[in-house]
Amino acid sequence: MAEPLVGRPYGAPESIGHGAWSDSSARSVLQLMVESVVELGDFLVATLSVVLGDKLVTMAYAGPEEFRKAAMAVDPVTVLEPVLDQAESWGRFHFLASEDTDFDLPGTWIETASGPGLAGPDAWRARDVLIGVLKDEDGRLCGVLSVDSPTSGRRPDTQQKHLLERYAAQAERAVLTAFERESLVQRVAHAESARRLVRAASMPAQASLDAVLSNIHQPLVEGFGASGSWIQAHGPGTEPHGYARSRGGEIVLLPHHAQEIGHQLGAMLWKEQRALVITTGPGPFTRDHDFPEPLLDEARALLLSLDLHSMLAVALGAGPECLGFLALTRRAQDPSWSEVETSSALEIGHDLGAALTAARALERERHLVDELQQLDDYRTHLIETLSHEMRTPLTVISGNLEMLQDVELEPEAERFREAINRGTTRMQRVVDDLLLLAQISHPQQPVERSPLDVALAVREVSAFVESTALAKGLSLQVEVCDDDLSILGHAAEIDRMLSNLLSNAVKYTRRGGTVRVRAERHDDLVVLEVSDDGLGISRADQSRLFTSFFRTTNPDALRESGTGLGLAIVSHIVQRHGGTVEVASRLGEGSTFTVCLPVR
Ligand code: ADP
User: Fold this and answer.
1) What's the distance, Cα to Cα, between the start and end of the chain in Å?
2) Contact, 328 vs 311, CB < 8 A?
3) Is pLDDT of 8 > 70?
4) Dihedral sign, CA of 438, 440, 446, 448?
5) pTM of the shown model
6) Do the Cβ atoms of 320 and 236 come closer than 8 Å?
């Protein structure tokens, strides 16, 4: 019984399309070979097939056209087994006489009916089979050279057997070289595509450090035909962290000191700007004077403990900084690392270094944003609690003040009562504003919208402030330029926004001045303009106008009472409604506040 036939396991031949070899020069060498077998070896037909995965694929054929189709048929490698079982071995060539075949052979075989049709035991018969078995240096089947129909009409004699053996040896070399070249061509292509994929996997704008580390595993092992990856990130002030993964993506637990090995190797590789191949067996890279032998020994011991044969190691880094370490591993039966692969890996180290720097910066930024958010939540919560707590005693004070209203007081006591009244009213305004501000700036409290008419709101709010304006001797002009000014919004909030802007305009304009409010539609926007020819606001003040508790530095404006919360409330309301607010002002000349809101 012949040994079972096993195809070549490496060079990813399965991925080569049947009959399609990317390196066409390899094909033409094989074609020349079969043609010379036909011409010089005196056979009608010669075919050369190679083992791709578990298939026998014909790469070259020479002979009459009528047999080409049968010669090109793709058969499983196993069709050779019964032939080799029964055939007479002449070295690489095996001869199966048709009279010795007691059953139909599986697979597609050429049957040459032509020929001189001689008689006698050495006459070639149509169903005779003569195949040369081509093997690699480890004795694994890599191809078959078959010949058929000798022009002499006779089965090969000793001299022809010698010639056939020579052909088979040449074909074997040619096939092996072609495999090697093909495998190299593919590995170059794979390494390049791995680099592209790694870039894509590591560059999404929002990728976290962990996401980058886990995204790149698959493109790396597939692109490099590696049996696993080991990648760790380490940076200033951070513990090294990362993972080793098998080809399928499962985490491989490494001993604790592995991190240290990765750390040290990474730093040295970045300094030297090179890649390093560490093999457990003898090889050109096993001794490397750039690296301390004990460290390499530790790395080799690690490989051995994981039943691995070699690793290709590079550093991840950016600028002067080494940011991590990457190793791709292979087993004993895998090919050795080519120069193209080492240089691709080196570049990947740079690409990943950049990705890690970006991911780190992003992580720091996220952290900071989280902290700020927490701080902001705390502040909102504090304001809310305080204002609530102050509301109850304020209600008690104002209730009692109201009762004092009906009591006849001494003139001096009356002055005290009025002072308390003013203070309480002011405090109530602050508390109300604070509560509203906390409410509208709460991210979890979205605005409840319904259709509302801005024209109506403008008219109502204007009517409300009119008496104050008139009492101050101001002229109040209201212009509603379009009929359809409807938006989707919260009516009370829109009223509050308008009333804050209008009452400011009235408050900060001197007797005899003019306050104008104008509402119109501009394309998809409702535009509200509240302007006055009052005190105006300095450039420096304008930049901080919408921040909570900001009050101007202008002494004329400071004479008016205020909380510094009105414009902060305006700004939040406008934002919640998807709009914008802007101010244009000159000190001493007046101000214009413009609010744009999207139409319904
Ligand atoms: P306040 O309660 O102090 O009015 P606001 O937030 O409403 O608080 O306004 C902040 C500051 O902006 C005010 O202190 C004032 O100096 C200035 N300001 C607002 N509106 C006007 C305006 N129409 N003219 C001049 N200054 C204004």
Assistant:
1) 87
2) yes
3) no
4) positive
5) 0.50
6) no
Confidence of residue 237 (pLDDT cuts 50, 70, 90): low
Phi, psi of 530 (to 5 degrees): -115, 115
Q: CA triplet 582, 585, 587: central angle to 5 degrees?
A: 150
Distance from the Cα of residue 445 to its chain's centroid: 33
CA distance 145 to 130: 9
Q: Catalogue the E-assigned strands of 77-140.
A: 88-89, 93-96, 129-135
Q: What average pLDDT score do residues 265-275 get?
A: 92
For a ligand 1 pocket test, name from 551, 554, 560, 582 the mutation site with the most ligand atoms within 8 angstroms of its C-beta: 551
**How many of the other CB atoms lie within 10 Å of CB of 349?**
26
- CB of 180 closer than 8 Å to CB of 139: no
Nearest 5°: the CA angle 202, 337, 350 is 30
Residue type, 493: E
Residue 278 forms beta bridges with which residues? 311
| Confidence (pLDDT) at 478 | 97
For strands 228-233 and 141-150, give the pairing.
unpaired
- What length is written for the chain? 600
Q: Which of 541, 567, 582, 591 to mutate to test the pocket of ligand 1 (most atoms within 8 A of CB)?
A: 567
Mutate to test the pocket of ligand 1, among 428, 434, 504 (most ligand atoms within 8 A of CB): 504
Assess contact for 519 and 456: CB atoms under 8 A.
no
Q: How far is the CA of 434 from the centre of ligand 1 (A)?
A: 16
Residues with CB under 6 Å of ligand 1 are 500, 504-505, 508, 532, 534-537, 545, 550-552, 557, 562-568, 591
377-430 pLDDT, tens digit per residue, is: 888 888 888 888 888 899 999 999 988 888 888 989 999 999 999 899 989 988
What is residue 262's three-state secondary structure? helix
Q: What's the confidence (pLDDT) of residue 282? A: 58
Residue 88 DSSP code: E
Looking at per-residue pLDDT, the higher value among 287 and 79 belongs to: 79
Position 467 scores a pLDDT of: 94
Most confident of 109-113, 155-159, 209-213: 155-159
| Cβ-based neighbour number of residue 100 at 10 Å | 12
